[in-house]
Amino acid sequence: MEQMNNRTDITDLRTALEVLRKIPGQIIETDTPVDPQAELAGVYRYVGAGGTVQRPTDTAGPAMIFHHVNGFEDTDIAIGVVGTRQRVAYLFGCEKENVGKLLTECVQHPVDPVESKDPAPCQEVVHLATEPGFDLHRLIPAPTNTPVDAGPYITLGMCYATHPDTGCSDVTIHRMCIQGKDELSVFLQPGSRHIGAMAERATQLGQPLPISVSIGVDPAIEVTSCFEPPTTPLGFNELSIAGALRQTPVRMKKCLTINEYAIANAEYVIEGEILPGEHVIEDQNSHTGYAMPEFPGYNGKASHECWRLKVKAVTHRKHPIMQTCIGPSGEHVDMAGIPTEASILMMIDRALPGKVTNVYAHPSGGGKYMAVLQCRKETHTDEGKQRQAALLAFSAFPELKHVILVDEDVDIFDTDDVLWAMNTRFQGDRDVITIPGVRCHPLDPSSDPAYDGSISDRGISCKTIFDCTVPFAMQDRFRRAQFMEVDPEKWLKG
Asked: What is the pLDDT of residues 366-397, one digit of tens each?
């Protein structure tokens, strides 16, 4: 049998899972009954969740598939599919150190999605909201992360919509909570994502915004949908990056009840409309005051300004697979962080070609708050360019808060090595550069006037550069110990 090419032969969630099944330690499947309300996330926390969630037993643990979900006997739930960088690398067909570089190439050579005229897997089963007994609680096995969540959440829904003026379409991920039998709340962070701008414009025109929500898709779509401006400005369809990665267009299918398209190979599709100017309280059913755990590792406050999405239909495959994730987990790190790395690499390489060899969006920052830059100094004129590169990184990804600069001999993916560089190549009084009063990310709990009176508004931070590089003129003094090269196998045999 011909061996599968992980880069080009994965077309959907199911083929991705088949790849993981063939790699030892990457996936666990269980028939033990599990409650989707808090219990499922609790199980995964201890088995494989990473990131800033309360530390599990193994931060590089496997993905999980639950085959027996209480209340949904014909449905599986998958979690952790892109939960580690190594797993993403397997699914992208590249080395884990190069996933950011691969996406950089893909952004520059987009392949636009195409409409499929063939019957779509995502429409094998159809449920219309006009039918008796239609109820999202019964149709969508959306878990909760904790007992105090506002409700069942769709955490990996690919929201697809079209700008009412330009006709340009886009895909992004937003948290969505089931609020009623045919209603979802959608949290659209103001000014940060394309679909939020579309909803605002539709409201100005006094018209609903048709939107499809595709759940359970090719992991390439999940990761590439997290690109943000300026790398992908309004009008740039991120599905074209996934098309470039797979070297074939993403297949789209016309929705049945709205004037929009959905991802043809999805497990589930929710069809509906964001109603103009209508907002709902996120915890209107639970009254806990919380939404769900957010990527920084804290329970997020329930929003009073979520958009109201009226559902028209739910379609899905036969025996569908629901896909979900824990908010503060390795999945968020990879989906947010790898596009961040690609965006930073692209911008720096345009201005300072060859001076930054790689970038790592560190997991402790959820893929958003912290980046480690591996810098190259070849001549005395390169001194200072590493700090310029840090400024460019802040421009490439506005939500970035901290940048750590290290030399080429430091492994940016090894936190111990990065901290070694900080301890031996860094002086706080000369190597810290602060830029106060800059807009970063509103979910950082320290970016709040209550934390410090100098902070003027929530989401305002002090961007900071930690320059842990060796001055060019002193490189000989900081050369790492050179041990003799030997073949260790000689001493390990017998």
From this structure: 999 999 999 999 999 999 999 999 999 999 99
Q: 13-331: CATH homologous superfamily?
A: Electron Transport, Fmn-binding Protein; Chain A (2.30.110.10)
Contact 397, 388 (CB under 8 A): no
What pLDDT, on the 0 to 100 scale, is given for residue 193? 65
408's tokens: 């080429």
Task: Say which residue the tokens 């074209």 belong to.
Answer: 240
**Residue 331 appears among annotated catalytic residues:** no
Mean pLDDT of 257-265: 98
Q: Give residue 347's identity as a one-letter amino acid code.
A: M
Q: What is the pLDDT of residue 184?
A: 98
Contact 246, 300 (CB under 8 A): no
Cβ contact 459:439 at 8 Å: yes
Residue among 273, 294, 341, 399 flagged as catalytic? 294
If we measure between CA atoms, which residue out of 476, 478, 482, 468 comes closest to residue 375? 468
Enter the tokens of residue 38: 């808090």
> In sequence order, what are the beta bridge partners of 28?
64
Between strands 370-375 and 251-254, the pairing is unpaired
* CA neighbor of 459 nearest in space, from 98, 254, 189: 189
Question: Token pair for residue 428?
Answer: 């706080």
Residue 188 reports pLDDT greater than 80:
yes
Q: Which long-range contacts (CB under 8 A, 24 or more apart) does 256-261 make?
A: 256/123, 256/126, 256/313, 256/315, 257/128, 257/129, 257/312, 257/313, 258/210, 258/211, 258/212, 258/312, 259/210, 260/160, 260/161, 260/162, 260/210, 260/211, 260/212, 261/113, 261/115, 261/160, 261/169, 261/212
Element housing 337 (H / E): helix 330-351
Query: For residue 399, what pLDDT is reported?
Result: 92
Strands across the sheet with 370-375, in order?
Answer: 356-361, 370-375, 402-407, 460-467, 432-439
Amino acid sitting at position 164:
P
Beta carbons of 396 and 343 less than 8 angstroms apart: yes
What predicted TM-score, i.e. pTM, was given to this entire model?
A: 0.93
Query: Would you say the C-alpha torsion 303, 307, 308, 312 has a positive or negative sign?
Result: negative
Whether the per-residue pLDDT at 1 is higher than 60: the answer is no
CATH of 352-476, one of 3.30.1220.10, 3.40.1670.10, 3.30.360.10, 3.90.1150.10: 3.40.1670.10
